[in-house]
Amino acid sequence: MEVAVYSKDGSIVGKRELSPSIFEQKVNESLISEVIRAYMANARRGTASTKKRGEVRGGGRKPWRQKHTGRARAGSTRSPIWKGGGVTFGPKPRDYGINISKKKKRLALLSSLSLKAKESKVLIIDEIAIEHPKTKAFHDMLKNFGFKESAKLLFSLEKIDGSVYKSGRNIPGVSFTTGSDLNALAVLSSGTIVFSSKGLDSLEKRLG
């Protein structure tokens, strides 16, 4: 698959062949779903915690006698049906992590990249460089390619350049990664993947 290579101003400066072994693989939707679920589960902190009726402070004394009050029976003010009482079947700290093999992660990444290529959501900019951190400069570059304000863009570079990152980090929908860190979740969470030429080189070197 051959795609155009652009300069920052939006003009075409050449063409490049996307590696078939990376961008023309069969899309395995069930594998993608499995791996994405694992990535999201592994990102959960799992620190939510509530107290059961036996863990809430107080409530050790019966609030009123059992009979002859005209009120319903009550044994503790920390019953789950009382305000300030314990929580029934509430969450406790737990590990939500799901183990996933490197092979599955790799295949899911190949599938997601192939899907983006099939949808023409892969853009290559020869060199993404900004001399001084300036959001306007980055915003102007995006306008050269006709991206809307709501566009979700993932920039995959060889390495995260400080000036480029600082220029784009405040723009909603823009995120950054490197060819060595790119994963299926990042790919599918974006609308368009924007590679620098060297960023694509590093991805091809990693995935072969």
From TrEMBL:
Q: Where is the composition biased (Basic residues)?
A: 59-71
**InterPro entries to which the protein is assigned, alphabetical:** Ribosomal_uL4, Ribosomal_uL4-like, Ribosomal_uL4_dom_sf
Q: Which GO terms describe its cellular component?
A: ribonucleoprotein complex; ribosome
The record's region (Disordered) falls at 46-83
- Provide the function of this protein: One of the primary rRNA binding proteins, this protein initially binds near the 5'-end of the 23S rRNA. It is important during the early stages of 50S assembly. It makes multiple contacts with different domains of the 23S rRNA in the assembled 50S subunit and ribosome.
Q: Which family does it belong to?
A: Belongs to the universal ribosomal protein uL4 family.
> How is this protein named in the record?
Large ribosomal subunit protein uL4
Q: Which organism is it from?
A: candidate division WOR-3 bacterium JGI_Cruoil_03_44_89
